[in-house]
Every structure is written in C-alpha cells, then in structure tokens.
Amino acid sequence: MLGNIINKYQSLEELCESLNNCFDLYDLGYIDSEQEQIIYNKLSEESALRLWAIYMHIKEGSSLTSYYLTYEDFLSTI
Q: Model confidence over 6-65: pLDDT tens digits?
C-alpha cells in the first residue's frame, strides 16, 4: 500500500505538499481505507531525509542498503 501511495505523486515535492493536508482524507472520502490514512499520517511525521529515502526506494527501485533499511524501518512502525 505504501508503494501505491508514493506512486500517486510525480515528484517528492508533490508528495510533501500533499502531506501538509493529509489528516482527514479517509473521513472526507478521498481514500478508501483507514490503513491508508494511517500510512499518510505516519509519512507526515517523517523527516525530509527519510521521506526522500522512502521515495527513492519505491520510485527508483534502488537497492542501496541505506534506502532499504529506511524503508523497512518505516514499514515496521505501521
């Protein structure tokens, strides 16, 4: 589900802008699941560097260990 969220955005800037107003997407009917809302909320709490690493891991398919660990660390918090 995280990959689907990230892939909705053409740039990291678009993702970051969307995270400024993501707290009631489920209640307003913009997304279909509470789990997706939880992921948006968690993403909004991440630092810019971690968001970049997660974004790069998903968009670029990077296999760099630092991206992978950051991505896995993020998933373990959900």
A: 999 999 999 999 999 999 999 999 999 999 999 999 999 998 888 988 898 888 876 545
User: Exposed, middle or buried by CB within 10 Å (0-12, 13-18, 19+), for 18?
Assistant: middle
DSSP codes of every residue in 2-49: HHHHHHT-SSHHHHHHHHTT-TTTTTTTSSS-HHHHHHHHHHHHS-HH
Q: What contacts 24+ positions apart, CB below 8 Å, involve 9-12?
A: 12/51, 12/52, 12/55
Q: How far apart are CA 78 and CA 17, in angstroms?
A: 21
